[in-house]
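Ticket #172: bound-state structure for magnesium ion.
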Amino acid sequence: MSSLRVLISAEQIQARIRELGAEIDRDYPQGPVYLIAILKGACFFLADLARAMKTPARIEFIGISSYGRGKTSSGEVKLTKDLDVSIEGHDVVVVEDIVDSGVTLNYLLKVFEQRKPKSLRIAALLDKPERRQRPVEVHYVGFRIPDEFVVGYGLDYAEDYRNLRDVCVLND
Ligand code: IMP
Ligand code: MG
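RESOLUTION: The complex was predicted; output attached.
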């Protein structure tokens, strides 16, 4: 039987997102900021972050898969859905649920840099720095967490648990 333990409550998540929204407002007073969420895990974070900002935002989605059905990365990154718009000359913030090995974002940043955005930053709700294999600079971090497998608030295990309101540690 697997068990769930709340690591970060829904209230803590929302409070931190309000702070991140204010930080992004200060950094981009003009807008529009292109918030680009990585499907599917970042969808709730994107929705809450966009509404925590006063700066005008445009929202876009990209699909990348680096994980199979297990808890560890396959190490292989695939672009499964590209953007529908050009980001050339725009301020871009990539919105991600969690930075783990860094493989996904390291790859995505290389792809996006070639498209000549005006600026390119990352907002990640969670960061597991101990697990990093590829360097990634994350400008907006919600919470640094220990090396434990978490689910909820968009994060899944084999597509389950995404709709939990809290971020929970999943133990087998
Ligand atoms: P990375 O490429 O290793 O940095 O992995 C990033 C992706 O792995 C995230 O977008 C998640 O989809 C997934 N991932 C990493 N750690 C976890 C976790 O603890 N729970 C659920 N998904 C995770
Ligand atoms: Mg993901």
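RESOLUTION NOTES: The longest strand covers residues 57-67.
TICKET STATUS: resolved
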